[in-house]
Automatic annotation (TrEMBL), chains A, B:
Keyword Transport on entry: yes
Subcellular location: Membrane
Membrane topology: Multi-pass membrane protein
Transmembrane regions listed in the UniProt entry: 35-54, 66-85, 97-116, 123-141, 147-166, 178-197, 209-230
Record carries keyword Cell division: no
Protein's GO biological process: malate transport; monoatomic ion transmembrane transport
Family, per entry: Belongs to the aromatic acid exporter (TC 2.A.85) family.
Stretch list, region Disordered: 468-501
Annotated InterPro entries: ALMT
Protein name: Aluminum-activated malate transporter 10-like
Composition bias, Low complexity: 474-484
Length: 532, 532
């Protein structure tokens, strides 16, 4: 019994083995290699499908909004399909009903702005091209059988060429690209159609109404079922990019100075943080399209009707230039790790201070944009950043003596030398990586100040909320504004590095003066710059 | 007589003046402000239209390819329209004929790759969704009147949601985005249609054939009437970007060193050149879409069927990182113009040499990519660039004595001091901008070497033509290959800065060794780096 079972098992095991080298006499056995190949292909395909599904699942988990968008499209499409399927007047796919389905498929985009943009483009393009097409059709039909195809052909050629070319114009491309395409489509269809003009009017009416149904369904669902606003996306990109820059800057400078103290820190995490600026470098295309779509959107959340979306683009450009500097910095620091050790120690605290104050300013900006609130600490943070820069300058000024002492009197630094052979390098060469670091940190700070200017302008145009401190200060100033009208007008610009803990002027005046302070402080920094 | 004329003139001048403050008693005069407003609006509109036309004209003159594309679309559309218009079987816009027109409008893109991609997506999507739709339609129609709309609605919902979500997957988005949209559209139209299944088959056949006619017309015209290849565009972007980087680098460093010699040079021209790198920073999106489209294109010009388009993306990324460094450099140099003058003079020649040799390498790379030819001078140019870097290092090494001499013995440099007050700055501070320059030039050179690696790999994969020198060398080596098999194997890697005027090994071996040389030379550069 057992043997029989074993034999059976053996037999069963042998049968599916297509790789046996024994001669295969029976006919059906010839198919085995093919079956194996088939099995292999099926398994390969299955693996690829599984891989794809895994990736899809990961994407869905990380960005559930995209899953919701898919479901929204599904709902809109089933609604419009079934609506037309169950209409008694329905006359098959060839009829006008299909335009509603087509409109939903083509017009429903990820964010509200894009959906609105495409909807309006579609309706306008169809209407304009339809009217023009009916006109041309009428003219052609009046001018005799011989001339008719010539007039039609030439008009289609001219308008299609012109409209296609116009799609390359930046102003058209940004807003009316889809409208131009729909214009070409509708004009060709209408002008060349074999219908009489009076029938065309009825058809145009039907077509426009089905398109209107489709677009309004899309607009309603995209605006009221968990809406995704292009403006929100742009807003998030900008303040997240600020945080990413802060992360990268911290990671980059931190790694450089930590490296020689405690060996390599937890590399995976820190290198991931340091690389965060790379996203910022590549965000231009997304930012521009989001800004274009955001202009079509109605007021929502903290954004009014004429929210200054173009300011976001300017801020984005400055952030990218900042990211460029961080890229250069990380490249230079990676390849030049062996700065003279005592110089590094000497400048370490001052450099780290500049870095951390720059990061504080970036995070302050990010928070200000995120909450659309004027930051009360922003100007003091900028002052502290500039102060830290001056401290770094002072640290550099105190360097030469050490530098000169080290080389001509080898006795003094003999201990260092015996510890570390790196110190043998000529002092100037050892200084270079640190000089680069200082220079690039200064440049990064300057670009962060440009970002501050951009955010201040955005706050002004978008009317950001007043911060708690500002509100308190406003109350104070209204209670005693007869005693001193603008108490810090003449003094503050002269002391750009002082910390203004409480800003006592009113909201707008504060902005004006702080802008002035900043201008003066930049000028002063340039005048006092350690390169003069 | 004269008075009368004058009066007449006065009267005429007064009439169109809508801003007069006199009381206006007559009825027709009430219309004047309105007419003036209308006239103003018309003039404003005319001005805008004229402005638009001017811009369009400028675009057409600068890029005639775009005008030609417009005309190609016009030709395709008139052809397909008239073909259907004149067919005796034609049954109006509602029929299947319109699908051919629509296909031409939607599928005809600027370059061949995009047109092919959309055409294949459209045909495949329609076919797949049509088959699936007919299947679902049949199942639904078999399951009774009550269940039918439910099955249809659910199937449309699930498939539309899944297909919409799949469009967010990077792998689908890059290649099958349009196909997924057409899939949703066709599936909804077919599955929900009120036709019987046997009629659907006939319709599907007709639909597919009209789409095939439209797509083949598009493909033929776009491929044979002055074709615009995505591959060509990508190729041009890459080698032009190399030239732009060379221009910017030259402009940037040149301006810095020229500035104090002969005042400001012709600023408009040089600043335009210096800004050229900004185009490079923003080219990522274009490069990626061109690479995606180029993969669909058949062999054309110097590009074979499996041309390594992805290598171009890698080279593009390195070029962008190079542009980042140039951006940081230009920022640093702009804000730090006052380096100590004699230091600047000391390092000027060496820095200019590194800059010009870097530019030579970039131009050599550009020419090599442009002509798809292996450059014979590339490796010697890289060697010269490295040599120039070492010279710069030597110039720096000879600095400390001067630097130290200047400060403690003021007598020696008293002449300089009296000439220029800038010299009063502590020597270390005066050194910083130059240190930054040297550091960033080194980083730029390192990134240019990465570009060289990328181009060498591209040349290997794309089988670039042999240069004249290589051909000559190949002939030589085949004539005397028994005397010495690989003469430079052991010696060359040790002398990376020597100029290999003629490369005597065979084509592939040369590449292998040069790669090895480069690896060693990079290592050596790092080992001998002046930061060690």
């Amino acid at each position: 019994m057992e043997k029989q079972v074993l034999g059976g098992l053996e037999w069963r095991i042998n049968v599916p083995d297509g790789t046996s080298k024994e001669p295969v006499p029976e006919c059906s056995y010839y198919l085995k290699p093919r079956l194996a190949l088939k099995g292999f292909l099926v398994v390969g395909l299955m693996a690829r499908v599984l891989n794809f599904l895994e990736k899809a699942w990961a994407l869905g988990v990380s960005e559930p909004k995209k899953v919701i968008h898919g479901m929204k499209v599904g709902i809109a499409l089933s609604l419009v399909s079934l609506f037309y399927y169950m209409r008694p007047l329905y006359d098959g796919v060839g009829g006008n009903a299909m335009w509603a389905v087509m409109t939903v498929v083509v017009v429903f985009e990820y964010n509200v702005g894009a959906t609105l943009c495409k909807s309006l483009n579609r309706v306008t393009g169809t209407f304009l091209a339809g009217s023009l097409g009916i006109g041309v059709h009428w003219v052609a039909s009046q001018s005799g059988e011989k001339l008719e195809p010539i007039i039609l052909g030439i008009s289609v050629f001219i308008l299609a060429s012109a409209a296609t070319f116009s799609r390359f114009m930046p102003s058209v491309k940004a807003r009316f690209d889809y409208g131009a395409m729909i214009f070409i489509l509708t004009f060709s269809l209408v002008s060349v159609s074999g219908y009489r003009v009076d029938k065309l009017f009825g058809m145009a009416h039907q077509r426009l109404s089905t398109i209107a149904i489709g677009t309004s369904l899309c607009i309603i669902i995209s605006m009221f079922v968990s809406p995704i606003w292009a403006g929100d996306e742009l807003h998030q990109i900008i303040h997240r990019n600020m945080e990413k820059l802060a992360e990268s800057l911290e990671g980059c400078v931190g790694t450089y100075f930590k490296d020689n103290q405690s060996g390599h820190p937890s590399e995976g995490d820190s290198s991931k943080k340091t690389q965060a600026y790379k996203c910022v470098l590549n965000s231009k295309a997304t930012e521009e399209s989001m800004a274009n779509f955001a202009m079509w959107e109605p007021p929502h959340g903290p954004f009014n009707f004429r929210h200054p979306w173009k300011e976001y683009l300017k801020i984005g450009a400055v952030l990218r230039s900042c990211a460029c500097c961080i890229d250069a910095l990380s490249g230079c620091l990676d390849s030049e790790k062996q700065a003279t050790e005592h110089l590094k120690v000497h400048l370490r605290d001052a450099s780290m201070a500049v870095c951390s104050h720059s990061c504080i300013v970036l995070r302050e900006l990010s928070m200000s944009v995120k909450t659309t609130t004027n930051s009360s600490k922003l100007h003091s943070s900028v002052g502290e950043m500039n102060f830290a820069l001056q401290e770094l300058q002072n640290a550099l000024k105190s360097l030469p003596t050490q530098l000169i002492l080290q080389q001509p009197f080898p006795d003094e630094s003999s201990e260092n030398k015996s510890n570390n052979e790196k110190e043998c390098a000529p002092p100037v060469l050892g200084l270079i990586p640190l000089a680069t670091l200082v220079s690039l940190l200064t440049e990064i700070a300057a670009r962060i100040e440009e970002t501050v200017d951009g955010v201040v302008k955005l706050a002004e145009l978008a009317e950001f909320k007043a911060s708690n401190e500002e509100k308190r200060a406003q109350n104070q100033s209204t209670s005693n504004n007869q005693s001193s009208d603008h108490p810090s007008c003449d003094t503050e610009p002269r002391r750009p590095f002082q910390r203004p803990e409480f800003i006592s002027t009113s909201h707008l005046r504060d902005r004006y003066f702080s802008g002035f302070c900043k201008l003066v402080s930049v000028e002063e920094r340039e005048r006092h710059s350690f390169f003069s």
